[in-house]
Amino acid sequence: MKFTDGYWQIRDGYHVQNPADIRDIVQKGDSFTVYAATKRIERKGDTLNGTLLKATYSSPMPDVIRVQLNHHKGKVNPGPEFELNTLNTDVQIAQDENGAELKSGNLRVTVNKTKGWDIGFHYNEKRLTGSGWRGPAYIESASEGTFFREQLELGVGEYVYGLGERFTPFVKNGQVVDIWNEDGGTSSEQAYKNIPFYLSNRGYGVFVNHPEKVSYEIASENVSKVQFSVQGETLEYFIIGGANPKEVLDNYTKLTGKPALPPAWTFGLWLTTSFTTDYDEATVNHFVDGMAERDLPLSVFHFDCFWMKEYQWCDFEWDKNMFPDPEGMLRRLKDKGLKICAWINPYIAEKSILFDEGMEKGYLVKTADGSVWQWDKWQAGMGLVDFTNPEATSWYKDKLKGLIDQGVDCFKTDFGERIPTDVVYYDGSDPVKMHNYYTFLYNKAVFDVLEENLGKNEAALFARSATVGGQQFPVHWGGDCSSNYSSMAESLRGGLSLGLSGFGFWSHDISGFEATAEPDVYKRWVQFGLLSSHSRLHGNESYRVPWLFDEEAVDVVRDFTKLKLSLMPYLFNSAVESSVQGLPMMRAMVLEYPDDPTCATLDLQYMFGDSILVAPIFNKEGNVRYYLPEGTWTNYLTGVKVQGGCWISENHDFKTLPMMIRPNSLIAVGAIDSKPDYDFADNVSLHLFELADGQTAQAVVVNQSAERELQVTATRNGSKLEVRAEGAGKPWKIVLRGIDSVSNVDGGSQEAGEQGIIVTASAGASQLTIEL
Q: Is residue 414 annotated as a catalytic residue, yes or no?
């Protein structure tokens, strides 16, 4: 939201006051408050009839500084508020006649009293950003109420990322971003998942702690500033530091919640009924059996909206005309080794048998006169479950438990963005703040009932909407995209932005949701989709099984599904890292290579975990141009080695794409490619790529409970390769990628393989010595 007219003038209708003269700094415990007048105070009389703005600095955990700006603090705040975690923090405060400083870990804020308003944020000795002259502002408008604004410095060459799952350009500089959840598809500036947190390539993050609309001007009003504003008398934000962008994300997710670890079965291929297609048990079995007959490993079958009868969403009852024996059908599908997902949303249509019950018991959101809020968009006469009412939440969860008892393993939690603001909530929550926050309560209720009934690390959603903290309830998918290359690229931008906003796991509708893709788009999107955290074939008005596109599509789905399943030892360990450190599995290049300036703007490629670079192909011709950082990289699929530090142009058929392995990498590859949930450590192969002299590579293999089973470390000294294995209770081997011969092996046996020499450790061996 813009308040200025150019650099010097204020827009008509606004009265802007900035802190101009620091009058006092008062320490209280582990915080201090700066009191600033909005004009220069020359004599005692100047203190009368004027405004005093306050800024309080504190720290909820090491390397994080909280900033609380306020004008009048007496206003009632009905909530809701984001759930934040705090840690014991050694806060150091120093103060003298020139100003004050608060230090938390390696992060500190400095207040200079001699310059009117001069606030700096530093990590060690590096200045990250600051708030200066005319930065903070208390703004009054006769027609719109009051606002609080902050402007933080944006350095030369500094880029801003994140702010949720945004499909606009990956680098947010120059954009106006409103944090307001909307159902806008993937081809607009609107977003399903709005997160008031941005990450800078200068190595810090900024989190604005407001559930309501936060309006950002990112070098778009003042071109050297990031501005954010909210309505009201207060503004609270956090500066989040770290030694690198990964540490910043770790600290941000310590504050707002770590992603849960999804169960291993969720990483396999999902197939859905699609949305408006016709289907019954025979149709479902036709597709499930067709996948099996073609040797296409399938892990999850999803029933989209019309598993319930039209006009009755949600009543959580199977449409008896289409599914007369739902319990038997689910049992028969599960006997084929499948997990089951069912579509839901938080709306109760008037025709649903649950509407009267919800209305009578006060479980639905109301209007100011006590009526049930209703409209006809989406479902005729639908109401909205009031998750601020504990009894309503329990009621909703009980309906889902009935489905879990029938055999449903997870839920696609659709919608949650179309939330009205002219309503009254059970607990008195501010409806404007609830617009974004509603999705947190909705997804938490569903995630909790799954975890309560299936166990920890067995719960999984397929969620569309999110706010701060929603990363704790994975998985999220990118919403309604079109079936073309442009939409494939915008989906990737959205996923990379969400990953830099604290979300670890993300998916998208392979080949697009709207319309039906051309066969080439389908096949290219399959490559991208199966080299994503989670992989789902889903669409709107047509089925997405590959043989409806062409026979080559069947081969592509088979090859890339099996590829992903074979990589589960590597991928599941990456998933564990995501849940512990708050890192995305699909990582923007800037996250892994923050010191490589070329990586700062890349959004058509990504790192899959820390060692695999993926460059999807966005054209029918198979042409791709991608960037490799320094070092010798190896295409995992073809074995071709490419020297990095430059841009690469290639052409690929539908069986390959740039899937490049970082030098000095050890990739754990499983012995099974037919399912995602197997014993990852049993007969695991450790593929070693381009280990340089004096370097060490390491791989960790965990089980499905995230417990470490095997750790293998390879070190090269000249022509000698030392390989050590900790916890080697099961057979394991190492594959020397691109090496055709070795002179000697101690501790195992060697044989030639298509990809390089295979060294199998002797039974019980924990060490190999290989002479190259």
A: yes
